Amino acid sequence: MSPTSQTTPASVPPSVFTLPHTAQLEALYTIIRDKTTSRGDFLFYSDRIIRLLVEEGLNHLPVVPKTVETPTGATYEGVGFEGHICGVSILRAGEAMEAGLREVCRSVRIGKILIQRDEETALPKLFYAKLPQDIAHRYVLLLDPMLATGGSAMKAVEVLMEHGVPEDRIIFINLISSPEGLKSFCTKYPALRVITGWIDEGLNEKAYIVPGLGDFGERRYCE
Ligand code: URA
């Protein structure tokens, strides 16, 4: 297969948007998937992908017509951003995507949600949420690098919706998705857009994405 030949499978839900699979993007993914990649390189190259993903996420926000005057004295009929945004990271791996969002959206507000497995029920449980007070009036870029089973992401969306954020104002951004996770997530939240860099083959018996990149948090935070 040539580096640019992967196409989005027909089974992918219509609310899912992948980055264009250019040779450049595939080279970035090859580096971060490689188990011999150093932590420094993992940080650098995953940050490059995160930035591309955030830019793509912003493409899904509404704009309104806006006319400006240029230094030549001419007018330019363009567009301006409409509406406010915020980021919400799913701890801990999602925190790694915050800097990429801040680079593109200066002084953006960022909330945090901590979800962990409830040892009694084995279901995802909310442990902590700190969200902007006016989140119900914002578009939310939800950040989590790996969409595996989708359990944490679905719980996070539930929390956002309980705080008044409409489903169609949430844009979920991740680096790698499993087809299983996408199916469950998009079936439950069809109006929510998902921006993913790559859709992998599936999940293994430990619910890791394959081929994947291993544990994103370990690769990013531990030497
Ligand atoms: N989280 C990770 O970090 N990696 C996976 O493969 C799945 C979930």
From TrEMBL:
InterPro entries: PRTase-like, PRTase_dom
Pathway involvement of the protein, from the record: Pyrimidine metabolism; UMP biosynthesis via salvage pathway; UMP from uracil: step 1/1
Documented EC number(s): 2.4.2.9
Cofactor(s) needed for function: Mg(2+)
Domain Phosphoribosyltransferase intervals: 21-221
GO terms of biological process kind: pyrimidine-containing compound salvage
Single GO MF annotation: GTP binding
Family statement: Belongs to the UPRTase family.
Protein's recorded name: uracil phosphoribosyltransferase
Lineage start: Eukaryota, Fungi, Dikarya, Basidiomycota, Agaricomycotina
